[in-house]
Amino acid sequence: MRKTNFTKFINSLTDEELREEMDKLFTKYKSIKEYYSMELGSDEDRKKLLDKSKNGIGKLYERFRTRSRLTKVNNILKDISAISIFDHELADVYIHHVEVATDHLNYYGWARDAEYNHLEKSFFKAVDLVTSSQSRDQFEGRLNDVLNKLKNYTNFVDELEIYFDDNLV
């Protein structure tokens, strides 16, 4: 369905029908309910959804697995990005992902190229979100800790440090 068709449909509804349609969507689709929980909910509601995402990412990087589950992590990050309304909250989730992935990498001492690429993209996204939300003071220490934990991977960490210095410092 195109947006024009949807707009025509919405415009054809009366106020009461529009309210019923919104109520039906809210009760039927979890993603809409989560979006409005982020948009209209309290800080506690948003924190619950963000913590749920962080816990989900953490479980996918549990120590007993030598390989992380990148597709599932991507799905979690995509879902929280779709409903998040504040960049600093989304930056917190991305930085958490980078921290967990770094711990996983250090624990095993190696990773596949896909895991390095995924870690790099998440780091870049986190830095971009910190920059856009102007929350450098809040997150700079955590990002520096990640860079310090990755010192053993010199070629990899050099790219991250350059990006970090160019965008935050």
Protein described:
- With 169 residues, the chain is mostly helical.
- It is 82% helix and 0% strand.
- It is built from nine helices and no strands.
- The radius of gyration is 19 Å and the shape is elongated.
- The relative contact order is 0.08.
What percent of the residues sit in helical stretches (DSSP H or I)? over 70%
**Overall 3D form:** elongated
Instruction: Report the biggest beta sheet as strand number plus sense, adding barrel if it closes.
Output: none
Distinct helical segment count? 9
Mean pLDDT: 87
What ranges have pLDDT less than 50 throughout 5 or more consecutive residues?
none
Structural class call reads mainly alpha
Fraction in beta strands: under 5%
Q: What is the N-to-C order of secondary-structure elements (H for helix, E for strand)?
A: HHHHHHHHH
Number of strands: 0
